[in-house]
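Hi V.,

You were right to ask for the full record rather than a summary. Here it is.
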Amino acid sequence: MCIRDSINAEYGEYLEVKPCCLVSMHVGLGQRALRCNNHVRSICIQGLANTISSATTVDWDDRVGLQAKWSNPQKGWQVEVEWKPTPHGAGLFAKQDMARGTVLRVGRIGLNLLEFRSGPEMLEFCREDRSPTSFNPARPDLVGYVSDYFYGFNPGESSQMWYGIWVPGNGLNHSILPNTVYRTAEGGVELGIDLVALTDIYDGDEMLDDYRRHGSPPDWAAEFSEEFGVTMNFSGYNDFV
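Predicted structure:
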């Protein structure tokens, strides 16, 4: 059994969650449209902003300050959280008690969640003008952001992994005893991914992810890591997983 399969077996059927029902349409990087069904006013997406398109004047190197660009509801958070510096970088902390199974943050493709399917798409995000045909060099701050927040997710629907980033990132540091887990949004991974409480979480607790669940990076992401000399949150691509 591979690492990804063993991790999925460990966490796979642990929770039952009921995020909102939406429908999505893919139309290309930075232009992936989203439309909602009759449940558009469901509380789980109220106030959700397009953080991807509005992240043009932020300091990508300021991991904590970046979060202040939008309110927590605009970022998709359904619970009260905050970010603090930790020895491992910016960390995410609970500001209320949260029961196991609570949807913590909703991620919707094209709004606050960006999927990468190739190296050129990843490089496109890192360029100043976000153009697939640009000859502009990649910005070091955006390369660093991808290095810190790029991850893999197994939707459980097929053997195909999903790869991408949240904007802004969740700020989950690594632990082999995580208290959060990602779940496919109702409607499929084409719609989005939700962050869910894996255990009861209490006010003041740091919220953690198990990076082993990210699986292995695709070849094009490994090449990105090598080309720019950056680490990634996958086993074998840093010194902590």
